[in-house]
Amino acid sequence: MAATIAPVRMGSPILRRCRRQILQSSQRLYASAAAKPASTSTSTSTGRPGNGKQGSSPAREPAMRTAEARESALRAARMRRQAEREDRQSEEAKKRLESEKYQKRYKTAARKWVSSLIALPILLVTSYYLFDRLALGHAQKSMPKTPPNHVDEKNA
């Protein structure tokens, strides 16, 4: 038996919790990016500011904060798309299950209908002959018996 995915509704507690966590992490990241003081350290051996290994220049610090904020927004969008994809899959699974239930009911009803269409003429004819014999008193029809040595005229 194939495992089915439990449907997750759009207003489900799991989805609300996921969205709330995404929103909170984005807000923390934006708040921490805005609150970080710009560092004035330079890199060690080259004397050039900001090669990204030991420290960064004041000009690169806002860019890093912006990049982190953008990464957080992208992560939130990916999580939202994944939640939407899971919602679509659960809705498709639910529709598929409903369709299977409908098909099962339809096949059962169709089988009963065909059986009744086949049985009805047989019932009508046999009930007519039984009524004719029992209520009206007519004799049962029988096959005529032929003598064993009788030869048909057609075959002779």
TrEMBL record:
Q: Where is the composition biased (Basic and acidic residues)?
A: 81-102
The UniProt regions of compositional bias labelled Low complexity, in chain numbering, are 31-46
Recorded superkingdom: Eukaryota
Could you list this entry's UniProt keywords, alphabetically sorted.
Answer: Membrane, Transmembrane, Transmembrane helix
Q: Where are the transmembrane segments?
A: 113-131
Q: Where is this region: Disordered?
A: 29-102
Designated name of the protein: Uncharacterized protein
Can you name the source organism?
A: Tolypocladium capitatum
| Source species taxonomy | Eukaryota, Fungi, Dikarya, Ascomycota, Pezizomycotina
